[in-house]
Amino acid sequence: MNVNGRIWLFGDDVNTDLIIPGRYLDNYDPSHLAAHAMEGANKEFASKVSPGDIVIAGRNFGCGSSREQAVTALKQSGVSAVIARSFARIFYRNAINLGLYVLECDDADSVFSDGETAMLDIDAHTMCSDDGSRRVNLTEIPNHAKKIIDSGGLIPHLKSQIGKRDH
Question: CA-CA distances (angstroms) from residue 99 to 38, 109, 140, 149?
Fold first, then answer.
């Protein structure tokens, strides 16, 4: 899968309350959550993010609570992938279960700038600048996790597997 999107750059320790502030958890509708995505870190994000955009961050992205609404907010807002030096494990697992690409990279946050566009190639595990002058390698998503993400998340993946067994 190839995606060409705008980069949204964030730092270390972006917690789930920055991704979707708790005051908006009175309504779990995905559109409502997307309208407030990243509001705690960047007030303009939700109104300016476009389908295919890419979030790049430092270490420990998604730390804090285990709220899966953080993933829902990002995915529903159009984010195609989150690339970080490292992820909080529960956020990483929630992202896989809900069908959002999460890729680790040791230097994407220092190679790319906020607001520029880049080409992300999930299958080749790379991302490069539009002009091709800068490129980073991404940690490969384990095959079993990629199958879940490619299916749209754990529930759609399991439904597809059950359907195969019935035939």
Answer: 18, 23, 16, 4
